[in-house]
Write a structure and sequence with these properties.
The complex is a heterodimer of chains A (321) and B (399). By secondary structure, chain A is an all-alpha fold. Chain A has a single domain, classed as Orthogonal Bundle (ABC transporter involved in vitamin B12 uptake, BtuC). Chain A is 76% helix and 0% strand. The radius of gyration of chain A is 19 Å and the shape is globular. The two termini of chain A are 32 Å apart. By secondary structure, chain B is α/β, with parallel strands linked by helices. In chain B, strands 6-7-8-3-9-10 form a 6-stranded mixed β-sheet, sandwiched between helices. Chain B has a 6-stranded parallel β-sheet with strand order 15-14-13-16-17-18, with helices on both faces. A 4-stranded antiparallel β-sheet of chain B has the order 2-1-4-5, with helices on one face. In chain B, a hairpin with a 2-residue loop joins strand 4 and strand 5. The chains are: A mainly alpha (321), B alpha/beta (399). The interface between A and B is medium-sized, with 24 and 36 residues. Chain B: GO terms for molecular function: ATP binding; ATP hydrolysis activity. Chain B: This is Iron ABC transporter ATP-binding protein. Chain B: Pfam families: ABC_tran.
Chain lengths: 321, 399
Amino acid sequence: MKSWWVKLIFGGVVLLLLLIFAIFLAANLGAVKIPLTQILTEPYKTIFFKIRLPRIALGIVVGAALGLAGTVYQGVLKTPLADPYILGVSSGAAAAVALLTLLKSFPYYALPLGAFLGSIVALLLVFLISRKPEPNRLILAGIIVNSFLGAIVTFVLAVSRENMHQIIYWLMGGLNNKGFKEAGVIALYLLLGLVLLFVFARDLNAMSFGDDTAVQLGVEVNKKRVLFLMLASFLTAGAVSFAGTIGFVGLVVPQVVELIFGKDYRVLIPLSSLAGAILLVFADALARSILAPAELPVGVITAFIGAPFFAYLFIRRGRHA
Amino acid sequence: MLKGINLVYGYGNTTLFEGINIEVQPGKFTVILGPNGAGKTTLLKILAGFLKPREGTVEINDQEIFKLPAKKRARMLAYVPQEPETLRDYSVWDTVMMGRYPYQGFLGLETKKDFQGVKKAIETVGLAGYEERTLLSLSGGERQRVYLARALAQEADYILLDEPTNHLDLFYQVKILSLLKDLAAQGKGILAVLHDLNLASFFADRLYLFSEGDVITGAAGEVLTFENIYKAYKEPALVVNHPVLGIPQVLPLIINKSSGGKTRVHIIGGGGMASGIMLRESQQGAKISAGVLNKSDSDWQTAKALGAEVVEEEPFSPISQESYRRLLEVLKKADKIVVAPVPIGPGNLQNIEALLEVEPKKIFIVKPEEMEKRDYSGGRATYIVNSLIKAGAQKYPEA
């Protein structure tokens, strides 16, 4: 009997090794190649510790948060087609952040909090519009909410001419110009979310058999569903508030992890955060090096990977229905 | 004991059922039957403790089920819902292990007891060796056994199942129901919603038949009667005894009720010998009458189902003078009279004697040459039949 924790430890070790590899690769790639032997000599030392490493740290926590959020959305809504970006949760957070930038001065910590509120409002709207939590309806509701929230963001852009460029770049999703401070805040979000979700992972397992089965096993389904959705939105908000709307990490990661490590959420929840981190660190390394010395927003890379994957899932699902 | 007391439930203004009482005893296999949409699943969910009735309550071992903490309830009662449409492809082992949820603490680390419980449950349902198989690689019947194993891993006294034999072939249904019967014999209280009346008749210790917002209850022989089935399903069905097992079996009568043409055909039968003839004549467009028949006789059921005019007597009663007089009236109106190959004795001899009062040419007798073999009236019936044939009665062509 392969126990879930055997899979978890095995998968954890494998993914950690991959993450370390990704970190080394990302540290090395970019406008300036850093030879590993001279990492402690200037100017490489400054580039590595002041520019590359904070960026990698941010990539790790943002990717982890998005991968984890995607796993939870897909688990609770029982469809592989859900992710924070598609559901409009990211847009909700983004719109809230955009509105906050209109206020000339707001406290630093208000940013993720505002983003959280925005994401919850977006999610509520999606549920209100879809009426029934069926995959197709949720996706269409997500499109509706996305377009409305997109309009809010565009409006904010038009009004605030001076930092337009900054907002646009943030919206496209990027890990640049941020530091350990931002990564630290998201890391706190991530830690809280990860611990709680891991503790309740068995409830998600039970719920995947349908509400009746979960209820009869003693799971308080309605309470747990709200809790899971809140936590996933909380994670999304944390990621969006500093790194913008990076799409499709939450879509691709859960599917791939599930394919390799099975269906148990006690395994999937920790591993999908690791896999999310790996994906985003890799994607950011690519974003920095493809057009070097120019940079692409990392959201462009994830969309290049994620949108075809979304199409694949959609087609496959259509065939099975 | 699991008891539903005076349960009332409905949606909006419509009442699904009003004042149902139901008992599930440990060691007994109890079955709920009824037409689609009668509220069987709803009743099951109420009894399982996660749907509150409008009125009434549910008690499990003398405690009100709605007041129990969810996990405690799950240790006392397991519910196996109908299979969800989308399945996550868990392994058999992981699926059954979920049954241990109500026993596990904060982090859900599995104990030795959990492992043993799961192993035993999988063995009980006969799936040892299937632990690593995943759900979608199994047949529908095997998956149903996995869900049953999960319920067993809950180690609950009561197991409630919603159509556990849905989508299964006949013999797999028998397999699942035998398993449930065994579990009941081991002391579990089993309650299942079933659709197949005949399997229910065979396996159930006690039946509850949904009928017009109420339930009819008792052993199979008491519940599965023509009247009860007609009341519940609004469809006629023949209730016969299983030729080998002697339990009641329900045969649906597929009848073209719009027939009922001009020719009147009276059929003399009894004991089911005339049912086929009645169906045949009715389908050929005749307006049927029958009698004299004892109530609940299978020919009586068929005649009733066909909407025939029936001259009837109480069960096991001889033909009274009143019935005889009515029989003569019906016979005179008839354009054609068919005599089924029924044994004739003192109890029904008058059915034959009455034939002497009508025009012999409209009488058709099934196998008149064999009359002697089924004559228990001391030769009187044979004599009458022979003289009717001489007077112009004909042999009824066999189908």
